[in-house]
Design brief:
The chain has 167 residues and is mainly alpha-helical. It has a domain at 81-167. The protein is 61% helix and 0% strand. The chain has helices spanning 4-8, 14-27, 31-44, 49-61, 65-72, 82-95, 99-112, 117-136.
């Protein structure tokens, strides 16, 4: 069976193929290699907005908030797809424990996204995890994004393990 990597050198659109290869690596939980392929794809074609979003999501999943924000900064440009702008704003609100704003932006992104149903599925999963975390968190506690284990003194946290899903 020929893999995406095998065909990348023989096809005109190398950036798109590298992006697909990055997604394939992420599904296989080869995160460092996936990140390198996402970056390579974006170096070839910086306008691959979905690749940029997925790279930032991968970085956030791996608790590299600074890198995710840097990656996503380009998606806040008015020329970027509106759905990705909302998704980035929603995830950034989540990083700051602003759950209502996070949910509102993620839902707005879903309503604008007509081209990538699997991404909507992922964002719906994030919304559900936020709701579960809100429901299970004592009113005086904060929920964060980097530690999914909960104790009585440390509430449940939102888990970003989205790359286990097969597309």
């Amino acid at each position: 069976m020929t893999t995406i990597r095998d065909t990348a050198g023989s096809v005109d659109d190398e950036a798109q193929l590298r992006y697909l290869h990055a997604a394939e690596l992420a599904q296989q939980q080869q995160y460092s290699e996936a990140e390198a392929e996402f970056i390579a794809a974006l170096n070839i074609n910086p306008a691959l907005h979905t690749a940029r979003f997925q790279l930032g999501l991968l970085q956030l999943t791996n608790t590299n908030v600074t890198a995710a924000r840097s990656t996503w900064a380009h998606l806040l440009d008015p020329k970027a797809p509106i759905e990705l702008q909302h998704f980035v704003r929603g995830l950034d609100a989540l990083i700051h424990d602003d759950f209502q704003t996070a949910i509102a932006h993620l839902q707005a992104g879903i309503s604008h996204n007509r081209t990538n149903p699997p991404l909507n599925d992922d964002m719906n999963m994030v919304i559900e995890k936020i709701r579960v975390a809100i429901d299970s968190t004592p009113p005086t506690s904060k929920v964060a994004v980097d530690n999914p284990k909960a104790t009585p003194n440390q509430p449940q946290r939102v888990d970003f393990s989205l790359y286990e899903k097969k597309y």
